[in-house]
Amino acid sequence: MNSTTRKLLTVITESALERTLVEDIERLGAHGYTITDARGKGHRGLRSAAWDESGNIRIEVVCDDVTARAIADHLQARYYEHYGMILFVSEVAVLRPEKFG
User: Which InterPro entries match (predicted)?
Assistant: First the structure.
């Protein structure tokens, strides 16, 4: 198995931000993303995801180092102060690196 390392950005945040974040992520160079509904408990309490506008989403982006840094820096500067958001970055092995920039 031949694989190449890329970055996986995982963003968990308020679902109300979905459209804006998708525009940001695409503008900053990501080739794609995956969005799923998310539930859980954290610093801001229990998020049940019972209603669309009060739920959380999980956005996953696999991309190169430069794109990952650009997205992470932008989200921290633009959203961290005013929205519930966590972001973590990990390395992943991909088999088709051309798909992830």
Answer: N-reg_PII (IPR002187), N-reg_PII-like_a/b (IPR011322), N-reg_PII/ATP_PRibTrfase_C (IPR015867)
| Pairing assessment for the beta strands 40-42 and 4-14 based on DSSP bridges | unpaired
**pLDDT band of 42, cuts 50, 70, 90:** confident
At how many degrees (to 10) do helices 65-79 and 18-27 cross?
A: 140
β pairing state of 34-38 and 40-42? unpaired
Strand blocks (E) in the chain: 4-14, 34-38, 40-42, 45-47, 56-63, 85-94
User: In 10 A of CB 72, how many CB atoms?
Assistant: 18
Per-residue pLDDT for 18 more than 60? Answer: yes
pTM of the model: 0.86
Residue 46: pLDDT above 70? no
